[in-house]
Specification:
The protein is α+β, with helices and mostly antiparallel strands. It has 4 helices and 3 strands; from the N terminus they run ββαβααα. The termini are close together. Pfam families: PqqD.
Length: 87
Amino acid sequence: MRIKEGYILKDVANQYVVVPIGNEAINFNGMLRLNKTAKLLFEALLEEQEIEDLILLLKENYDISEEDALRDVKDFLTVLESKNILL
């Protein structure tokens, strides 16, 4: 899985936001605010990733358990899927 073309990450007033560009701007109203963890996952998802890769990324960057990392990854992926941002 990875992020669809047409979405970029911006730092706006010290907050991370995902905004649509091009044709995606027609289908997606607004923007998606991200915390630092979600930003890390979003940046990783700019290239093809497996869930296991994302879990490992969180575990390497934060002192969290495998279960917590899995929950965080699944929660974030659910948000991205609900917004139709993932391929």
